[in-house]
Write a structure and sequence with these properties.
Blueprint: E1 12-18, E2 21-28, E3 35-39, H1 52-56, E4 61-65, H2 85-98, E5 104-108, H3 112-122, E6 127-132, H4 147-154, H5 158-162, H6 170-178, H7 189-199, H8 204-215, H9 222-232, E7 236-241, H10 255-258, E8 262-267, H11 274-289
Parallel strand pairs: 3-4, 3-5, 5-6, 6-7, 7-8
Antiparallel strand pairs: 1-2, 2-4
Helix pairs in contact: 2-3, 6-7
Length: 294
């Protein structure tokens, strides 16, 4: 039965215990509808989807978790919890199992891309489609921004680690939101203020530095991600902020090498495209996903 387009579904704010950690998540929409699992990026949380979720909830069951160390999920000390992309994927996999999500589309952005693609390698038959927003799976997408981080991957010295500390300060967080946005009055400043509160918590600097180092472990998996695309051919919608300096559009183009059912939209905005183009992205998602065969 089709849900009336006029129906309104409240957003629920919940917490579930996964692998001895509390995972906070947002959930909306009827559980009988197709599920979209929303995976956030750095340095934010499920809050990046705060405006998108209500726009999708009359057509989809929408679920958006916070990773450990982000948002309102647990933030164990980095000496007792491994802040690696493999371990964050362990948490998301446990979350999927706890909520009994057996089929879903993946919305991946920034850090959410390697986490989502690692999850897809583990549970390939659960992935019905992909929505990719500034999420990389090709080395062509790792350009100038990544040079000091690549140096840290090659030589993980205390000096190279400290050289990246500026990436978690308030100026850099605000820069991520503003760069590439023509009309900055469209940006809600509370988004980066909230992100910064999370980054400024005691111990979070080491968490983020650990994850910058661990991001290097994703690059050798790119061929496996691409092999997943080729084998399973998930219908894929790309909605990419083309003015993003972190994940520029050079990272969007190569998806066409491996995916047949692909629709690409390069949006005139920056890294956090939902902040300025949320309604358009919601319309694209509904238009694309609802026409796919179950």
């Amino acid at each position: 039965m089709t849900t009336p387009s006029s129906a309104r579904f409240p957003v629920h704010y919940k917490t579930v215990r996964v692998n001895e950690q509390d995972v906070f998540y947002r959930e909306a929409g009827p559980e009988s509808a197709p599920t979209i699992l929303l995976l956030h990026g750095f340095p934010t949380s499920s809050n990046m989807f705060r405006n998108l979720i209500p726009l999708l909830a009359n057509s989809f069951h929408v679920v958006a978790p916070d990773y450990p160390g982000f948002g309102l999920s647990s933030m164990p000390d980095h000496k007792s919890f491994a802040y690696t992309f493999e371990n964050l994927t362990n948490t998301v996999e446990g979350f999927v199992q706890a909520l009994n999500l057996t089929k879903y589309s993946l919305y991946v952005m920034d850090y959410g891309a390697p986490i989502g693609y690692r999850l897809a390698l583990r549970l390939p038959d659960r992935v019905q489609a992909l929505v990719v927003q500034n999420g990389n799976a090709y080395e062509e997408g790792l350009l100038e921004f990544w040079n000091p981080i690549k140096k840290y991957w090659a030589e993980p010295t205390p000096e190279n680690r400290k050289a990246l500390n500026f990436l978690v300060d308030q100026k850099s967080t605000q820069w991520q939101y503003e760069t590439g946005v023509a009309d900055k009055t469209l940006l809600d400043p509370t988004a980066w203020v909230l992100d910064q509160v999370g980054l400024d918590r005691p111990g979070n600097l080491d968490i983020q530095m650990d994850l910058f180092l661990s991001y290097g472990s994703n690059v050798p998996l790119y061929p496996e991600f691409q092999a997943f695309f080729r084998k399973y051919q998930p219908p894929t919608l790309i909605v990419w902020g083309k003015n993003d300096y972190i994940f520029p559009p050079e990272g969007a183009a190569p998806y066409s090498r491996d995916l047949k059912n692909l629709e690409t939209h390069l949006l005139d905005t920056g890294h956090f495209a939902l902040e300025t183009h949320g309604e358009e992205i919601a319309d694209r998602i509904k238009g694309f996903l609802l026409k796919q065969k179950p």
